[in-house]
Amino acid sequence: MDPTSAPAAVAHDLSFVGLFLQADPIVKGVMLLLAIASVACWTVVIEKAVRLASAKRQARAFEALVRSGGSLETGSEGIASRVVKAALDAWRDQDASESRAERRERIERAMRAALTGEVKRLQSGLPLLATSGSTAPFIGLFGTVWGIMNSFSSIARSQDTSLAVVAPGIAEALFATAIGLVVAIPAVMAYNKLTNDLGRIQSAFVSSIGVLGNRLARDRSVHGRAAAAE
């Protein structure tokens, strides 16, 4: 028998696919779980990026509409349309006994409630990113610890501590931690970025809501005086 054929008999495939296929069933389960989490996180990131880009445009359009003093009946869409609808519904709710400050507060409260509902819809999915970012490294570490334990058990059974025997099992175990980091790092970065963008969008709407609330409260007070004069 050719002695050079012995290493080939114990050769291990150290490619990503090979490390997965050669791993312990528990470690394989950890890797699959992390892979599914990665796909879910990237789905959320792409969907939120598209929706927040649209929300940014709506916030700019809403601000321009409010600053220009144009008609509120047209020209708004999405979040802006629902905020405007809430404002107009509150504006039409006549109450001659309330002061201008009370009227403004009521109108702004209605708009803020509508905005809060829209922000909550935009926040859906973000907890998945936060959870994946915080737990994926530990899930991967569990797979690594389990794989290393199996490697040490194999070493004990074979009574061979050579690097050729130890390295493949350790590599398979560490691969689980690597996948956990691949899931966690983008998830944390995306969560921070999307949360920051969402906060800016909300702040832009809140600023415009203050201006619009003052405008509508002033218009209501004018109508009220005109009606009293008649």
Question: Could you explain the architecture of this structure?
Answer:
- The protein is mainly α and 230 residues long.
- The chain has one domain.
- Helix content is 84%, strand content 0%.
- Helix 3 runs antiparallel to helix 6, helix 4 packs antiparallel against helix 5 and helix 5 runs antiparallel to helix 7.
Distance between the termini: 114 Å
| Number of helical elements | 7
Helical percentage = over 70%
Tell me the series of helices and strands, N- to C-terminal.
HHHHHHH
Strand content: under 5%
Largest sheet, if any? none
Please provide the count of β strands.
0
Compact description:
It is found in: Cell membrane; Membrane. With 230 residues, the protein is mainly alpha-helical.
Task: List the keywords.
single chain; 230 residues; mainly alpha; 7 helices; rod-shaped; disordered N terminus; disordered C terminus; transmembrane helix; membrane
Topology:
Blueprint: H1 5-9, H2 16-22, H3 25-68, H4 79-92, H5 100-123, H6 126-158, H7 163-229
Helix pairs in contact: 2-7, 3-6, 3-7, 4-5, 4-7, 5-7, 6-7
